[in-house]
Amino acid sequence: MVDVIRDHKLMSAPVTHGIVWFTTCFGLKIMQRAHELMKSKTFHFFDVVLRYKELYKYKEDMVLKILEDLRIVCEDKKVKEKVKAVFGVNSQAGNIVAGRFGTASVDSWVGDWEKGVISTILTHADMDVNRPDFILKGTITEI
Predict the structure, then answer these.
(1) ∠ CA 77-80-83 to the nearest 5 degrees?
(2) Hey, CA dihedral for 27, 33, 35, 37, is it positive or negative?
(3) pLDDT tens digits, 42-51
(4) Cα 118 from chain centroid?
(5) How far is CA 119 from CA 22, 69, 73, 100, in A?
(6) Tell me, what DSSP letter sits at residue 102?
């Protein structure tokens, strides 16, 4: 949080300084720092990045792959069925995003106004991380 407050470019972004501004700036600072660390080649920052998109698409296989990579042995023969059952539950039940669970026509809770704020901040900040779909080099995008 302090990094965002101390960053003149982010503080002077010509947008309403609310939750969308703070979330975007905070995430941007984290991504920018990760990007800088990865460019330095003196620090191996990520071994893997798990994105919800792939987790949702591959479900059981992704979870099993993660367990394998973490060297966690799962001897349960019905593990795939159990993982599948977990993905069948609305973990967001009872909060604001619960109504969008399973809605195929909705890709994101971010609307046009929020996208405009995010784009303005990214342009104004003028960092290496400069677009919403920025991907850190060397991270996985699919199994």
Answers:
(1) 125
(2) negative
(3) 655 555 566 7
(4) 14
(5) 14, 36, 44, 24
(6) T
For residue 116, give both structure tokens.
């405009």
Number of H helices, E strands in the chain: 6, 0
Closest CA to 128 of 55, 15, 14, 37: 37
Where does residue 29 rank: exposed (0-12), middle (13-18), buried (19+ CB within 10 A)? buried
Angle at 54 between CA 108 and CA 75, to 5 degrees: 135
Angstrom distance (rounded) from CA 89 to CA 66: 20
Q: At what angle do helices 52-69 and 79-87 cross, to 10 degrees?
A: 150
Per residue in 47-96, pLDDT (tens digit) is 556 677 777 788 888 888 877 877 777 888 888 888 888 777 766 677 66
Is residue 55 within 8 Å of 137, Cβ to Cβ? no
Q: Give CA separation, 90 vs 49, 51, 87, in Å.
A: 23, 18, 8
Decide if 28 contacts 121 (C-beta within 8 A). yes
The DSSP symbol for 36 reads: H
Helical segments of 7-128, H only: 8-11, 19-40, 52-69, 79-87, 112-125
